[in-house]
Amino acid sequence: MAIKRSGCEGCADITCGSTKEVLSQDIAGSVVTAYDRIESRGVSACLFGSGGTCCRNCNMGPCQIIDGVDEMIGVCGATADTVASRNFARIVAAGSAAHTDHAREMVKGFIETAKGNGPHQIKDVDKLMSLAAVFGIETEGREINDVALELGEKALAEFGKQDDRPLSMLKRAPAKRQELWKKLGVEPRGVDREVVEMMHRTHMGVDQDYKNLTLQASRTALADGWGSSMLSTELTDIMFGTPVPRRAIVDLGVLKPDQVNVTVHGHEPLLAEALCIAAQDEEILALAKKAGAKGVNLAGVCCTGNEILMRRGIPVAAGFIQQEMALATGAIEAMVVDVQCIMQSVAQVARNFHTDIITTNYRAKMPDAVHIQFDEESPLESAKAILKHAIKNYRKRGEFFIPEKSKLDVVVGFSHETINYMLGGRFRASYRPLNDNIINGRIRGVGAIVGCDNFKLTDEGHEIIARELIKNDILVLATGCAATALGRAGLVNPEAVRFAGPGLAEVCEAVGMPPVLHMGSCVDNSRILIAATEMVKEGGLGDDISDLPAIGTAPLWMSEKAVAIGQYFVASGAQVVFQSLPVSGAKQFNKYLLEGMMGEYGAHWNVAEDPHEIARIMIKAIDEKREALGINKQRERVLFDMAMRRDMGKNPVGAGCHGPGA
Ligand code: SF4
Ligand code: MSK
User: Fold this and answer.
1) Which residue minimizes the CA distance to atom 3 of ligand 2?
2) pLDDT (tens digit, 9 = 90+) per residue, 442-452?
C-alpha cells in the first residue's frame, strides 16, 4: 500500500531536506515511518502520563492522581508529589542503568585488551597513567598492559562495590563540589547499588518524601555521570585513542551507490570498532568485490555513529529520527544494531527492501531480525561474520535512492584534552586561554546542547538554539544526536564561524575551531563534566561548577538517559533546560526541581518549549553568573531575527519541517 503524505511545501531547510527527499521517492511509497504513525494515531498524550501522576507501582492501582483533589490521591494515599517524584526517580534509574550496562561491557572489553586478547591495543598511555593515579595504582617500572589490567579490574569493581566509600572518580570533581555532595549525603557508592536502591525506594510503601527521593535520584545520576559514563568514555579513549580533530561528513548522502552499505546503530563502540577493522580486511574486501561491489562502506547511526565519527572519521548517516529514513533509501545491505535507541519499526521498514537488521547483543533481540551474537572474546571474527552476511545481500539490492547532495562537512573530535591543546597549545596545554577569553568577554560563556532528537518538535530546534548562542558569543559544546543534527545544519564546521558573534569568532578563527564543538556520544557527556572541572581548577571563574557561566540543554530529549544526564548535570552544579518534564502534575515537586534544587546544588532544572525561549534562558543564566563573578559587561542580546535568517539563506522560523507530513 502506498502511503499518502501531505507534503511539506515551501520547506527548503537542510535539516529535513534528506528525509523529505527520500520519502518523496516511489521506492519509499510503502514505507511507514514514525511521521506516518504520528499522523494516523490521532490520540493526544495522556495528561496523567505527561504530568507524571499516573502510578502503577502496585496492583491496587493503576492510580491516576489529581494534585489538590482529596478524592484523587492513590488508593494507598500517595500524593501527586510522591507519585511524580517516584516516576521521575525511576526514569533516572533506567537512564543510569542503560549507561551503566554499556559501560560495564566497555570495561570488560578493556580488560580483554589489557590481557592481550582481541584486535585492540592500549593507545592513549598518558590517559592510562592519569586514570591509574585516580585509582591509586602504582605505575613506576610496570608494563603498560599490567597497569591497564589493574585499572580495568579496579574499574569493574566500582560497579558492584558494597562498602560505603564513595566512587573513586568523584575525586576528579572540584573540591567544593565534593564537600557539598558529602554534606548532602549524595556521594554515590557502588554504581549498581545506587540503581538498585533507587528501585527499592520507589517500590510501594518505601520512600514517600519527594525531596528524599530526589536525593537518591541525584546519587544515582552522579553514579552514572562521574562513575559509569565517565569510566566508559575514559577507558574507551585509552583503548581506541582519545579523539582529535578530524574532518568527516554526515547525513544520508554518505551512503554509496557502488559499495556494500552497512550502518552501525546503537551505542557500544566495541562492536563498531571491530567492524571498522573488519571492513578493511582483505578477505572481506575480496568477498565484496566478488559480489560486484567496490568495497564496504560503513556509516554510523545514533551514538555508535558518533563514537566512530569522533575516533575514525567514519561518516554518520543518520541520527535517531532518521534511522527509518536511512533504510528507506533501499541502499543499505545491513543495519547492525546493539543496544539503545533502536526503534522496533526498523525491522518493519527493512521488510520493504533487501536489507537485514542484524541484532548482535543477547540483551536486545527483535522479531524479524537476524541475530549474530557479538563475541567480546573474538570481536574480529564476529565482525567478519556480520559483514559476510551483509555482502551476501548486495546482489539482491533493487531500486534505491541516495540523496547524494545531502552530505555536510563537519570537523569533530573535541575531547576535553583537545580543547586544552587547541586553546592552550600542545606544549602548554591549558584551559587558561579559555578562562581568559571568558573573563575578558570575548567568549560570553559555554552552552552545552546535548541529547536526542524526537518527533515532537522540529529538528530545527537544535539549530535555532545553537545559532542564537554562537551569535551571542557563547561557545557551544554538543554531544549525541543533537551534535549530529547540528552537523546536518552546517554548524560543526570552522566555516560556521561567520555565524558567530565577533568575540567568539575571533577566538575560533585564531585556533581554527568551529563555534560548535562535537564532543561525542551521549555517554561522552562526562567529557563536559571534566571540561567544566578543568575550567574551575584553572582559576578566575569561581571555585565550583555552579560558579561558571555555563548551562546545558537537551531540547529534544527522548531517552530516559537524557533525564539521568540532566540530573547529574544539576547535581554537579550546572543548570539545564529541557523542552518538557513529566512532573508538571505535581505542584510542589515541580517547583522543587525548577527552583528548590538551587538552594542545595547551586543549580536547577528549567523547562521551556520554544527554542528561542530556551536560548533566552541560557543567555540570561550565563549573564547572571558573569554578574556574580564581577566580569559582566552590559550588552544587548542579539536576537536571531528574520533578517539574519534570510542572510543565511534559511527559511523563517516556523516554516521549518516537522517531517514529511507536517
Ligand atoms: Fe496506587 Fe499507591 Fe499502588 Fe501507586 S502504590 S498504584 S498510588 S495504590
Ligand atoms: S543515541 S540517547 S537518541 S542522543 Fe545516544 Fe541519540 Fe539520545 Fe539515543
Assistant:
1) 452
2) 999 999 999 99
C-alpha span between 168 and 147 (Å, rounded): 17
Indicate the helix (H) or strand (E) that contains 301: strand 296-301
Those residues whose C-beta lies under 8 Å from the C-beta of residue 45, and which sit 6 or more positions away, are none
pLDDT band at 338 (very low <50, low <70, confident <90, very high): very high
Ligand 2 centroid to Cα of residue 430, in Å, is: 31
Sequential DSSP letters for 125-187:
HHHHHHHHHHTT---TT--HHHHHHHHHHHHHHHHH--SSSPPGGGGGS-HHHHHHHHHHT--
User: How much is the mean pLDDT over the chain?
Assistant: 91
Q: Residue 225 corresponds to which cell in the numbers above?
A: 555521570
**Was domain 424-649 assigned CATH 3.30.1490.20?**
no
Over residues 549-606, the pLDDT tens digits come to: 999 999 999 999 999 999 999 999 999 999 999 999 999 999 999 999 999 999 999 9
**Which is nearest to 601 in space by CA: 575, 566, 628, 562?**
575
Question: Structure pTM?
Answer: 0.93
Q: In this structure, which CATH number among 3.40.50.740, 1.20.1270.30, 3.90.850.10, 3.40.50.2300 belongs to the domain 89-240?
A: 1.20.1270.30
CA gap 267, 95 in Å, rounded: 13
628: confidence class by pLDDT, cuts 50, 70, 90: very high
The residues lining ligand 1, judged by C-beta closer than 6 Å to any ligand atom, are: 55-58, 60-63, 74-76, 78, 83, 204
Q: Which ligand is nearest to the CA of 60?
A: 1
- Specify the residue for cell string 549507561: 99
Grid coordinates belonging to 511: 585556533
**Ligand 2 atom with least separation from CA of 451:** 4
- Calculate how far, in angstroms, residue 574's C-alpha sits from the geometric centre of ligand 2: 21
Pocket of ligand 2 (CB under 6 A): 267, 302-303, 320, 340-341, 451-452, 480-481, 521-522, 558-559, 561
One of 3.90.420.10, 3.10.530.10, 1.20.1300.10, 3.40.50.2030 is the CATH number of 252-406, namely: 3.40.50.2030
Q: Please state the φ and ψ torsions of residue 576, each to the nearest 5 degrees.
A: -135, 155
Ligand nearest to the CA of 81: 1
Q: For the residues of 308-325, what is the DSSP string, one character each? A: HHHHH---EEE-GGGHHH
Position 6 scores a pLDDT of: 47
Tell me whether the CATH fold assigned to 89-240 matches the one assigned to 252-406.
no
Contacts of 150 (CB under 8 A, 6+ apart): 132, 135, 137
Q: Where are the domains of the chain?
A: 6-41, 89-240, 252-406, 424-649
| Ligand 2 atom having least distance to the Cα of 480 | 4
Which residue's CA is minimally distant from atom 8 of ligand 2?
A: 341
Amino acid identity of residue 474, one-letter, is I
Is-contact 231 172, C-beta < 8 A?
no
Segment 170-196 mean pLDDT: 98
What is the tens place of the pLDDT at every residue in 80-114? 999 999 999 999 999 999 999 999 999 999 999 99
